[in-house]
Each structure stands twice: as structure tokens, then as C-alpha cells.
Amino acid sequence: MMLVHQYPGATGDDGAGSVPMLIGTAVVVLLVLAGIRGRELRPRKLFLLPGIVVLIGLAAVLPPLAGGRPLHGIDAVLASADLALSIGLGAVRGRTVRIDLVAGVSRYRYGPATVLLWGLSIALRFALGAYGARHGASPLVTEAAVLLMLGLTLLTQNIIVFARAAARARRGLPGDPVAISGAIPGPSHP
């Protein structure tokens, strides 16, 4: 009995193998460790790494698609689910990141909820990939898109973190961060 129902013409060469999964896992581990320690909130740093990861992910996904790699229903379902989970969990994680003022500088730090949500993100991504592999989805969706989705989830998280920090800075309440390193200063308030 065969559990994998491959569509006609599916080959093992339409994904990037386990390399994106290994790179993605290593990036997440490093991000979580750095996030637990805390970092200065700098827009360039918040958006540079996710942007690079999204571009690398697109570089892995777009050439096979442009080359006419056929995708089927299971691929669309998995890609949609992965996209929704990546953006949704990134937004929720962004709300759990702590933003503090330390020596006049805004800093962000991952708390236990953020770390748990990263773990959930990883577990769900592995589950989607395994489900897709068992049901004949293209490795383009189950493997090659890992870095693209990692970049999107991190970008979403960091957009929320930056928006929260900027809102706190605009309010100027005591104890709220008042400066975001590298950001263009807004109008001064009396």
C-alpha cells in the first residue's frame, strides 16, 4: 500500500532538499537565542535579516515556477496554509515581544510566550511539510519555500514590534521607550 500519492510528472528534483530546512532551523535557533538576551531596537536590523531571508526564499521558489514546474491542488492548499500560519504566528509573536527602555535606548526581548510561539511555528512547519510529502505535494512547497515563509513570519513579527515601539515613543508616557535607534525622529512634543 502506497501512502504517497504523487501526481504525474512529479520528480525529486523540484525542491532544494533538506538544505532550506537546515538553514531555516539554524536561523531560528540563532534568532531565538539573540531575542532571549535582548537587542537594541534598530529598524535596519529589524528589517534587514527578514528581507534577506525572503529574497533567498524567493530565489529558491521562483525559478522552478518560472520554468513551468506544475503545481496541483495539494500544493496550493499547503502553500496557503503555510502563508497564513507564517503571517498569523508572526503577528501574534510580535505582540509577545517585550519592549523596554534601557539607558535611554529602546530594546526588545523575547519572553517565554515568544519562545513557545517560535516552537509552535517550527512544529507546524514540519507538520505541514510532512503532510505534504505524504500526500504527494511538490518539494517546491514542502521544502524550498521554508526560507521564504521564515522570512515572512519574521518580517511580520518585526513589523508589529516596530509599530508597537513607535506608538509607545509617540505617546511619550513615563517608562515608555522614547527613542528608536536609527529611526527618523518625529516632531517634538512639549
Characterization of the model:
It contains six helices and three strands; from the N terminus they run H-E-H-H-E-E-H-H-H. The chain has 190 residues and is mainly alpha-helical. A three-stranded antiparallel sheet has the order 1-3-2. The longest helix has 26 residues, at 146-171. The protein is elongated and about 55 Å long.
Structural class: mainly alpha
Total helical segments: 6
Biggest pleated-sheet summary: 3 strands, antiparallel
Mean pLDDT: 81
What's the count of strands? 3
Order of helices and strands: HEHHEEHHH
Strand order of the largest sheet: 1-3-2
Rounded to an integer in angstroms, the radius of gyration calculated over CA atoms is 19 Å
The backbone outline, from C-alpha atoms, is: elongated
Low-confidence stretches: 1-15, 184-190
Distance between the termini: 74 Å
Q: What fraction of the residues are assigned to beta strands by DSSP?
A: 5-15%
Q: Helicity level, as a percent range?
A: 55-70%
Question: Any descriptors?
Answer:
single chain, 190 residues, mainly alpha, 6 helices, elongated
Could you write a compact summary of the structure shown?
The protein has about 190 residues and is mainly alpha-helical. It has helices at about 20-35, 45-65, 75-95, 110-135, 140-145, 145-170, and strands spanning about 40, 100, 105-110.
